[in-house]
Design goal:
Elements lengths: L1 H4 L16 H20 L6 H21 L3 H24 L8
Length: about 100
C-alpha cells in the first residue's frame, strides 16, 4: 500500500519516464501549432505564403524534436504535427510557393 501514498512526481504531461522534458515539450507544442496553422491556411489559395512558411518551420522544428525526443508520447505528437506541417507546406508550394510565385 506504500505506492498508494506516493505523490505524482512527474514533471511533464508528456513524460512517461517520471522526468521533466521542457525542451521536448516546447518543440512538441510549437510543431503542433505550426502544423495546424499550415494545414488550415493551405486550404486557401491566397494564404500560400503563410502556409508554406509555417509548414517549412514546422517541418524543421518537428525534425529536431524527433531527433532529441525521449518518450513515445512526444514522438507521437511530433509525427502528427510534422505530417500536418508537411501537407500544409506542399500545398502552399503548389499554390504559389515561399516567395509568392515571383520569378
Amino acid at each position: 500500500m506504500a505506492q498508494a501514498l506516493r505523490p505524482n512526481t512527474a514533471g511533464s504531461l508528456f513524460a512517461t519516464d517520471d522526468r521533466p522534458h521542457p525542451v521536448q515539450d516546447a518543440l512538441l507544442a510549437v510543431t503542433l501549432v505550426l502544423g495546424a496553422v499550415s494545414f488550415i491556411t493551405a486550404m486557401s489559395h491566397s494564404l500560400h505564403l503563410l502556409s508554406s512558411w509555417t509548414g517549412l518551420v514546422g517541418i524543421l522544428t518537428g525534425a529536431y524534436g524527433l531527433w532529441i525526443s525521449e518518450t513515445t508520447r512526444e514522438r507521437s505528437g511530433l509525427i502528427l504535427g510534422l505530417g500536418a506541417s508537411a501537407i500544409g507546406f506542399f500545398l502552399g508550394m503548389a499554390h504559389g510557393g515561399l516567395f509568392g510565385g515571383l520569378s
